[in-house]
Amino acid sequence: MPKPVDRLPPLDLLVTFEAAARQLSFTRAADERFLTQSAVSRQVRALEEDLGVALFRRGHRRIELTEPGRRLHAACSELIGSLRRTVASIRAPARRETLALTTTPGFASLWLIPRLADFTREHPGVDVRLDASFETRGLRAEGFDLAIRYGRPGHVEGRQVFAEAILPVCSPKLLRQAPLARPADLRQHVLLQVVGQGGAGMPVEWGPWLQAAGLPDLQPRATLSFSGYGEAIAAALAGQGVALGRRPLVDTLLKRRQLVTPFEGSTASSRAYFLLVEPGARERPAVRAFEAWLLKQAQA
Length: 300
Description:
By secondary structure, this protein is an alpha/beta fold. Helices cover 41% and strands 21% of the residues.
């Protein structure tokens, strides 16, 4: 007797497929699912054999979804996201809640993490899961409650939480080593900059700032380039050069005098930070509490 065409494959195969399709990587899916890469590959093969169609086109260093794979991924994303939310709402009752938040690495390390202890102290029983990534996560599909996103107004969803301003910053030690009284003195210093891979990440451009300062052709003593903003600020703290400080990310370091601003004034940025809450998650008390706490911190 032939098997019904609407017979569902095993759920664990669908969950593994959804992770691989979202990440477009068996290796990253394996990390997420706590499996080996070969186990993920075997499970995807088993699903393809069960369905009788190829779900991925496999290249030398990349995979991509076939048309059946794209259709299945769309369905799995919606259903697995719905399952996660339902399970979370009925899971009994340790009276602990997990709050899942995604944001950029720079915002996470420089602004959010130093303040998170205040939130956890005020809200015992709420566990925070923080994803620091430049990838734009799908909140509903990937099980996140909130996102703090970085970009230009009109190009990013959500409520604007912070405007951004840019100003050169360095360690007090650096000021004692070499003169830095006016922007032209940057010729004697190392400039710290961030260079995103393939255009991704958080750009930190010295060019526009120097243009605004009337020094478009300034050549520094040297430059140090980093793939992440946190690393550039770490180099500034170590006295290795002058970085472009992005407020509010560096505000705490400025307040503590771990970094200083050698010149007066700052330049307004075309980017800002936005808070996006998954609509279904806003019903949960922990999510509403975090949103209120974040907005209060932003106002402070």
